[in-house]
Structure formats: structure tokens, C-alpha cells
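Sequence dictates fold. Below is an illustrative record:

_____
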Amino acid sequence: MNAVEVLIGALVSALPVVLGGLVHIAFIKRRWLSSLAKRPLDGGLTVRGRRVFGDNKTVRGALVMIAATAVAAAVCAGFVGDHAVVVEQTASPWRWGTLLGVGYILGELPNSFLKRQLDIAPGAPAPRGTRALFWVLDQIDCLLGIVVVTAVAGAPLPVPVALMLIGVALVVHPTLAALMVLLGLKTRVG
């Protein structure tokens, strides 16, 4: 796999997730499916007296992110055609997009669980000694979920593509967070 194929593979993998995230932002901003936004993924369960994931991980977020990423992957596949180095590994772009969306959601959960157990409120900064660590985790947790889910599903990302995605994630994720701050959906970027 040459450098151009690696870059295309990373972009083909990242673009549906980015587009899915933008659709999710629209759902938040427009308050669409608001009843599902009130349903936390953890159902209010606690461990050691602390919420498992917190109120920010919702049924709406999971459903919208998975569905929007699947649709985005199908649309993107129509544009990239034979250059879809990564998509070719799976039965269909719809399946690939679903795997990306599921991986994205599942990748966020361990980080949220850890933060709740350390009494870091949803959306709040980590304590000074761990702030840099949690910033990096916040940027790549979803990517780690995508790598695991695609591997378990029998459609693993090629290692060079996964490594390229780390660089892409370290740029795209903070950029989208800045967009969310501008739209009033978040109070801070990192």
C-alpha cells in the first residue's frame, strides 16, 4: 500500500464519521428526536455511586451517529469508486459505515466511564495532572473503537491506514469541537 492509498484509505474512513458527526450536531441544534436525547445509554445506572457514562451519552446520539455514518459511507462510496481501499474489504459501504458508527460510539464509552469514576463531570476538564492524557484520549477514543469494531467484524483497517487516522483524528476532532463551541453546543474545545 503506497502513501496515496494510505491517505485515501484514512480519508475514506474518516469522512463518513465526520459527516455523521455533523448530522448529529444538526440533530442537537434543532432538538430533533429530543425524547431520545433524554434517554442516557447507561439508563441511569451507577458504579461506586457514580454514573456509568453520564447524561451526555444518549440513545439519540448512538442511533443518529450510527445511521448517519452508514448513509454517509454509502454516499461517499459512490464518489470514491475503485479508490476505496478500505471500503473494498467489506460486503457493502452500508456495512462499513455501520461498523464505523458503532465503533465510534463504543470507543467513547470507556473514556466516559473512566471520567465518571474519577468524578470528572461530562464536558468538564480533567484535573491538571491528567488533563493532557484525557485530551489525547478524547481525540482518539472513537478511533480506537473503530479499529476494534472493524477488526472484530472481520474488516480490519490496514495498520498504515489506522496510523494515518490518528493524525487525521488529532486535527479533525478538535476542529469539530471548535465548531460545536461556535454553535453554542459546547463550552470549550478541549
Q: What stands out?
A: The helical segments are 3-30, 34-37, 59-80, 93-117, 131-152, 159-182. The mean pLDDT is 89. The chain has six helices and two strands.
